[in-house]
Write a structure and sequence with these properties.
This protein has helices at about 5-15, 30-40, 50-65, 80, 85-90, 115-125, 135-150, 185-200, 215-225, 255-265, 315-325, 360-370, 385-390, 415-425, 435-450, 465-475, 490-495, 505-515, and strands at about 5, 20-25, 45-50, 70-75, 95-105, 125-130, 155-160, 165-170, 205, 230, 245-250, 265-270, 290-295, 310, 375-380, 400-405, 430-435, 455-460, 500-505, 525-530. It is of the alpha/beta class. The chain has three domains: about 5-170, Rossmann fold (3-Layer(aba) Sandwich), CATH 3.40.50.970; about 185-345, TPP-binding domain (Rossmann fold, 3-Layer(aba) Sandwich), CATH 3.40.50; about 360-530, Rossmann fold (3-Layer(aba) Sandwich). It has a six-stranded parallel beta sheet, with helices on both faces. Helix 9 (about 215-225) packs parallel to helix 11. The chain is globular and about 70 Å long.
């Protein structure tokens, strides 16, 4: 039954009717009444950010961890321009979000904050949906939710400010989203793929983020073939319990795993676009048969051209392959019995020594892997420190791992850590950030984590430099001074913002900090002091 409502109420109600309980945002002229209605009339939770872009990043991590559509809201003009990096990061990460963005009044084209918001959103790769009239609010919200899920990207719903207090009839509308598994592989391409797999002597199965829901089917296929299992970075943790898990495939592989990959003759890839870091710029796929399976045609052939491609669902395709291998009585390859499973995921051990006043970063990571809570969600910001974290820190499963790698930006990690924590408040969040990234984005939102009383452990890898740039100067025997900074004490900053923490300049202090973490109350920051000349290079 329809009824007269203010538009801001209609939008808030439509959000609630889509099953949303949590909204991230920063209020302004065009969205404050909608956000207030969501909380007061519809019992929603509003998480206020300190910066508009942060709200998008929080919603992104919330979506990843919870499996639901993430929701954020900002007002018009500069509020939306502040979201450009966050929208690009989430669009490239294929995260389903709906951003409720205010727009300046239609009847005031010379408004100070007026901007072509459609064009702005377009360049980020996000989608744009216009609130057409006060009477279509329910339909337009439903369409935004539908597109976010089907297109797997953020959709910005543009809401003119002068609509908010208008009244119109509201009709409830929630569109069905067709989420059944994609197509089943068939035809000549399937025959070719099975032929390549059947003739392989050293096959390997690689799973990306598009195959995380097909774990059981992929493990059965791997066991049938006697093939080891590996993942891309974003699917890290998918095969933790398997004896022939190789962890991350590509430039982040262990030395033994890299050698195993080099010796394979057929790589069966599920749900991965095979970008240059996964393939080590194509070197790992050279002289091998490559079978690529992905439900999205655009994911195939982008990184490299496979020998055969199947546009199909990962799980159904693995089951189909297994069926025909059994029907043809193809023997197992005998590959995994040749492998030493204990060495597949072993990275070289670190030295415990460092210059006075510093700690060895890799040694610190090894101690943290052993001492930090095992049920953690791991979040990483960008910086040269990140690849060693990816290699040395384990995660329970891919849903427990959030990495801000889609746009190559730093300064996004703490915001995503907050969103992850809101999605899983019963679990500790471990965030690794660089000093530059923390200054750029972490300081903005550390107090937000304090206000929310989150169980957040922040490790700042402080080499007092922008490390990726520092190493370029050093490599060319140039003065790296422009890349070096004398930051304030991050521990003092954390305490001033309501948290706690400890500076770590020695191995003894590292042990003290790890012990203190066990008794944390609210956000706790560990500042690792690192020698900028002794931080491992990025493995990419």
């Amino acid at each position: 039954m329809s009824q007269q409502r203010h538009v801001y109420q209609s939008i808030a109600r439509a959000i609630k009717e889509h099953g949303v309980t949590t909204m991230f945002g920063l209020i302004g002229d065009a969205n404050l009444f909608m956000a207030d209605s969501f909380v007061r009339e519809f019992d929603g939770r509003f998480i206020p950010a300190a910066h508009e872009g942060s709200s998008v990043l929080m919603a992104s991590a919330y979506a990843h961890v919870s499996g639901n559509v993430g929701i954020a809201t900002v007002t018009h003009g500069p509020a939306l321009t502040n979201c450009v990096t966050a929208l690009t990061e989430t669009a490239r990460g294929h995260v389903p979000l709906v951003i409720f963005a205010g727009d300046t009044p239609i009847d005031n084209p010379r408004h100070l904050q007026s901007i072509d918001q459609r064009s702005l959103v377009k360049v980020t790769g996000a989608g744009f949906e216009q609130l057409r009239t006060p009477a279509t609010a329910g339909e337009d919200v439903a369409q935004a939710f539908y597109r976010a899920q089907v297109e797997r990207r953020p959709i910005v719903l543009n809401m003119p400010a002068d609509f908010m207090w208008r009244e119109a009839e509201y009709d409830m509308q929630v569109l069905d989203v067709f989420t059944a598994p994609g197509g089943v592989a068939e035809g000549d391409a399937l025959d070719d793929a099975i032929g390549m797999i059947a003739s392989a002597k050293r096959p390997l199965i690689l799973a990306g983020s598009g195959a995380v829901n097909a774990q059981e089917q992929l493990v059965k296929l791997a066991d049938r073939l006697e093939a080891p299992l590996a993942t891309t970075l974003k699917a890290k943790g998918l095969f933790n319990s398997h004896p022939y898990n190789m962890d991350i495939f590509g430039t982040l592989s262990t030395p033994v795993a890299y050698e195993v990959i080099a010796n394979t003759d057929c790589i069966i890839c599920f749900g991965t676009a095979l970008h240059e870091f996964t393939t080590d710029r194509g070197k790992l796929m050279k002289d091998k048969r490559v079978v690529q399976v992905d439900v999205a045609p655009t994911a195939i052939g982008g990184g490299l051209h496979p020998d055969v491609a199947l546009v199909a669902d990962a799980g159904l395709t693995a089951e189909t392959m297994l069926y025909w291998l059994d029907e043809a009585e193809i023997p197992a390859s005998g590959f995994t019995p040749e492998l030493d499973s204990d060495t597949l995921t072993a990275h070289p051990a670190a030295s415990a020594t460092a210059k006075d006043g510093f700690v060895n970063f890799v040694y610190a990571l090894e101690r943290m892997e052993a001492a930090l809570p095992k049920d953690r969600l791991l979040v990483t910001d960008g910086g040269r420190f990140m690849t060693e974290v990816w290699c040395r820190l384990s995660v329970p499963d891919p849903q427990s791992f959030v990495c801000t790698v889609n746009f190559g930006s730093i300064g996004l990690g703490l915001q995503e850590a907050i969103g992850a924590s809101v999605a899983a408040p019963e679990r500790p969040i471990v965030l690794f950030s660089g000093d530059g990234g923390f200054m750029m984005g972490g300081i903005n939102e550390f107090n937000t984590a304090v206000r929310l009383e989150l169980d957040l452990i922040v490790i700042v890898a402080n080499d007092s430099a922008y490390g990726a740039e520092h190493i370029q100067f050093v490599d060319r025997q140039m003065d790296p001074g422009l890349s070096e900074f004398h930051w304030p004490s991050f521990v003092d900053v954390a305490k001033s913002l309501g948290g706690d923490g400890m500076e770590v300049c020695s191995n003894d202090q590292l042990e003290e900090a790890l012990e203190a973490v066990k008794h944390r109350k609210g956000p706790y920051l560990i500042e690792l002091r690192l020698d900028p000349h002794d931080v491992p290079r990025m493995r990419i």
